[in-house]
Amino acid sequence: MRTVTFSTLRRTPAMFLASFLNLFLGGAILTGFASLYETGAAAGVSSADRKSMQTMALVIGGWGALIIAFGTAATLTLAVRQRERQIALLKAAGALPGQIRRMVLAETVTLLVVSAVPATPAGMLLGRTVLAALKSSHQVADGVAYRFGALALGIGFGDIVVAALIAAYAAGRRAAKQSTAASLVASAIDDRGLGRKRLIWAAVLLILGGNAAAMVATMMKDGGYETMSVAGQACILTALGLAVLAPWLIRATAAVLGPLMRGTGGYLAAAELRQHSRQAAGILMPVILFVALANGALYEQFIQDDATRAAHLTQSADDKGVQTLSFLVTGMIALFAVVVVANVAVAGTLHRRREFGQRRLIGDTPGDVRRSLLWESLAVLAAGLVFGTIAALAGVLPFNYARTGGWLPEQGIGVFLGVTAVIVVVTLGACLGAGRKALRTPALAALGG
Length: 449
Fold this sequence. Notes:
Number of domains: 2
Low-confidence stretches: none
Order of helices and strands: HHHHHHHHHHHHHHHHH
Structural class: mainly alpha
Distance between the termini: 22 Å
Number of strands: 0
Mean pLDDT: 83
Helix content: over 70%
Radius of gyration: 23 Å
């Protein structure tokens, strides 16, 4: 199976490149901020400097690791799902379930090793840059020396390795348990059920998110940055809960928008979303996370800043530190979510060369295929914006009530429009650009390849 493993990595580069980029970027972000924890733990660092750096590292290492692990697991699971037909043929040729599991794990370990090489210097550069920014804003003393060692590597890569191996084991176990016939059917159509475990996880996350939102609105009024922290938890937990339900949300969106998608390519796009909802869900999940986190964190920070100015208070050193932390968390995690969106969109679209070839052979023109792909992308974006905004509001509305006494924030829609513009450009650019590349392959060649 070792030969099959490396042959698969060479012959299906798009999805594995997406997984590599996710592992690389996640490793760089987590090791970079973990190095701040190691820097703060060094001898001779003052307690104030240690608190600033280690708080920042723990926040990124906590929520950031959870979201990065979620995106990494989603990408690796999608990579295995796209190869269900190949796995079925391996079983038909005599491969055992244990061999299938080891093949998937071997592919994941290879990607982890390869991604760790560039992620290490990138993490060092990120850590140095953040420390320099903290020094320039006088949140950390100029004499603090940067450290990057075994602790930073262990914390940073430990999260990525655990998440990737768990995802690979789960995906490999599912693929190994299916019969050859079931694998062939699964490669053609989706399993329309969500599964009990997925529903339980979604319910738990949504309940925890709702509980955090209720705490902010009822028990933490005028609590300052502690209140903002819990509001951020409400946003993140709600976004993760909705992301777990992404296949069902895609089918619901297709049902709602179906009557509006009756033009050229629209009918086929709605049918594609209903029949292959898990593929579209791979794009929807990071879109929801990006919209929720970017809007939630930015609006909450601006609400806090405006409340401070309205009270005629000046920002303390702690206030500036939390503000810096908020923007760093938003920037790093939003960057990761955008990369996941682009990677999954490109890899998923390129994987559909065979489907595009079949449609062209039965009479569709390349323009018809592109219009259908545009409709699909717009439907995914609509779902991502709606449900991502719902998740953001789960944190923003109670936080605004806790700080101002009113539910609706007065900061306007400028931030929302900016976040929307970024995700629309990234998603449409990735999907339509990959679709154009896929259509360059002649129809017969795509059908055979």
